[in-house]
Amino acid sequence: MSLGERLFLSRLRARDERAFQELVHEYGDRVFNLVLRMVNNRAEAEDIAQEVFVTVWKSIETFRGESRFSTWLLRIAANHSKNRIKYLARRQTDKGGLQEVPEGALADVGHATTHAHVETPDALLEAAERGNAVERAIAALDGDQRLVIVLRDVEELSYEEICEITGLPEGTVKSRLHRARMALREELEDDGTDMASAKVTR
């Protein structure tokens, strides 16, 4: 951990509100993107992201530097997401469902879309449709599979980091990721999407 990072954590532990604002500025998009892809509902994702940063603010003393700070933060985001998914599943049963994120909205959150370098209108539309298909396929995965595929293929984290976030052994992470990718491939094939040209957006 660098000196700058240690000083930043010291400011957070001292309840420096400017440090909290810097925290949200630095990690806000990343946390929101992860949460949004997990719950597939923008309003819920906004609430969860706020809860994540409040949790970090309240529990910063528990971070001991045994992992990267971003890994610790994403672990909190993942846990909040999984808890909300369980809650939403119960509420969906009780109330007949929740409004999902509009088709294509995920591709535009915080990062470049799959069609960032496409020039012609036809190619632009085709790339957008592929991106939408991938996002629909991710949303169709169960929560555990969705988490590992987002962490590995969207966030591009190492297996070690994913193990730290999920609390799973590496073998379990790899087997779960393999099943998730196979399920994703099946969803895309059923949707008529060419897997070779499909790409998970960030």
The CATH architecture of the largest domain is: Orthogonal Bundle
- CATH top level of the largest domain? Mainly Alpha
The overall pLDDT average reads 79
Give the tally of structural domains: 2
How much of the sequence lies in strands comes to under 5%
Could you spell the SSE succession in H and E letters?
HHHHHHHH
Instruction: Write the CATH homologous superfamily of the largest domain.
Output: RNA polymerase sigma factor, region 2, helix turn helix motif
**How many extended strands?**
0
| Distance from first to last alpha carbon | 26 Å
> Radius of gyration, rounded?
18 Å
**How many DSSP helices?**
8
Major sheet description: none
CATH domain fold name of the largest domain? Rna Polymerase Sigma Factor, Chain: A
Q: Could you estimate the helical fraction of the residues in percent?
A: 55-70%
Q: Give the overall form.
A: globular
Catalogue the unreliable spans.
Answer: 97-119
Structural classification: mainly alpha
Task: Describe the protein in words.
The protein is mostly helical. The protein folds into two domains: 1-101, RNA polymerase sigma factor, region 2, helix turn helix motif (Rna Polymerase Sigma Factor, Chain: A); 104-202, Winged helix-like DNA-binding domain superfamily/Winged helix DNA-binding domain (Arc Repressor Mutant, subunit A). Helices cover 69% and strands 0% of the residues. The protein contains eight helices and no strands. It has helices at 3-13, 17-39, 42-59, 69-95, 121-140, 143-154, 159-166, 170-190. Helix 2 (17-39) packs across helix 3, helix 3 crosses helix 4 (69-95) and helix 5 crosses helix 8. The relative contact order is 0.12.
